[in-house]
Every structure is written in structure tokens, then in C-alpha cells.
Design goal:
- By secondary structure, the protein is of the alpha/beta class.
- It has one domain: Isochorismatase-like (Rossmann fold), CATH 3.40.50.
- The chain is built from 7 helices and 6 strands; from the N terminus they run αβααββαβαβαβα.
- Strand 5, helix 6 and strand 6 form a beta-alpha-beta unit.
- Keywords: Hydrolase.
- This is Isochorismatase hydrolase.
- Pfam families: Isochorismatase.
- One of its GO terms (molecular function) is hydrolase activity.
Length: 196
């Protein structure tokens, strides 16, 4: 079944897929989902090949020691990773907190473009991805009564270990806490099959 039969005006929302987020010296070597980059690249290629919108969110830290601070390393850390580099015409917003809806125009971009279905990918599952999805659901940036839906693409998001918990456990629990309450849960291959 084609995407038009299942979803209304879908878009891919990519959160914090930046060089600084992958900084192993700062954040550590342990990360969930080794297929994160390849799945993200597949989604980007799929959406672009079908003329579907891709929205990019980057993080600009206010912490002077963070690799995500614009002044560190000539701004190398805030650059998007190759798999998620925006193409001309694709909206890009920058945030300095966990939610992509605080201090940005993202909600306006979504509403102005008539987007009704958001597929969310990026880093990190338990922090900025989760916070953005929760807030997006609470704000009803895609209105459920109009068929609006938010999905987390669980194999196109990833995170680090946290508080003594390994990265895969943190990732799994974070996805489980979003499921049905704030978002549907899908995998990359399902999105690509649906949006043909």
C-alpha cells in the first residue's frame, strides 16, 4: 500500500545528527544501534527520491566546553554528519535545549507546510529525540483529529549509556516509554515500504 493511502503529508524530522554528538572523547565509546548512520542515510535517500520533506534540527550548546558549542574547533562539532547533511531547500533550525520546539520556528515550519505525519530520527533517543517527540505530541504540532501522527524510527535513533545503564537498555526503555503514549514505533524498512 502506498504512503498516500496510509499517511497524510509525511516528513522526516532529523534531530542532532551532528559531528559533536558523535564525539567519543566527550561522550564515551558506548553507543546503541551500530546501524544508526546507515539507516539514517537510507531514510534520507528514500525521502529525497520521492520529493518528501526533510526537516533538520541542530544543537548549538551554550556550554563553552561542549563540542556542540559553535566557537569550539572552528564550529566543526555543529556540522551535520554526512548521512544527514541538509540539501538546499530543506529547513534547518537550531536549538540550545533538549526540545526542538523551544526557541525555534519548527512548529511553524511543520504547520505552514501542512505536514501531518512526522517520522523522527537522530540522536539521542533518551534526551533530545524523546523530549522533542513528547513536546510535539503535547503541543499537537500534527493534530490527531486531522490524522496527524508522530513515529519514532527506532533503528534510526541512538544514544549513549546513562547512569550505569548500558546504551542498548537506555535506548529500549526510552522507545518503550514513548510507544503509544506519544508516538508510534517503526523501523526504517517499514517506513521505506510504506512510503513507496
Amino acid at each position: 500500500m502506498s504512503g498516500s493511502a496510509l499517511f497524510t503529508n509525511p516528513a522526516l524530522l532529523i534531530i542532532d545528527s551532528q559531528e559533536g554528538v558523535l564525539h567519543t572523547t566527550r561522550w564515551g565509546l558506548s553507543r546503541s544501534n551500530p546501524s544508526f548512520e546507515s539507516n539514517l542515510a537510507a531514510l534520507v535517500t528514500h525521502f529525497r527520491s520521492r520529493g518528501l520533506p526533510i526537516l533538520h534540527v541542530g544543537h548549538r550548546s551554550t556550554d563553552l566546553t561542549s563540542p556542540l558549542h559553535p566557537d569550539n574547533d572552528g564550529g566543526a562539532g555543529i556540522a551535520f554528519i554526512p548521512e544527514a547533511t541538509p540539501s538546499p531547500g530543506e529547513p534547518v533550525v537550531y536549538k540550545s535545549v533538549h526540545s526542538a520546539f523551544v526557541g525555534t520556528s519548527l512548529a511553524d515550519v511543520i504547520r505552514e507546510r501542512g505536514i501531518r505525519t512526522l517520522f523522527v530520527a537522530g540522536m539521542e533517543t533518551d534526551l533530545c529525540v524523546s523530549t522533542t517527540i513528547r513536546m510535539g505530541a503535547n503541543l499537537e504540532v500534527v493534530v490527531p483529529e486531522d490524522g496527524g501522527r508522530i513515529f519514532i524510527v527506532e533503528d534510526a535513533v541512538a544514544n549513549r549509556e546513562r547512569g550505569g545503564w548500558d546504551a542498548e537498555t537506555v535506548h529500549a526503555v526510552s522507545v518503550a516509554s514513548l510507544k503509544d503514549e506519544f508516538a508510534g514505533v517503526v523501523e526504517t524498512k517499514e517506513v521505506m515500504q510504506w512510503l513507496t
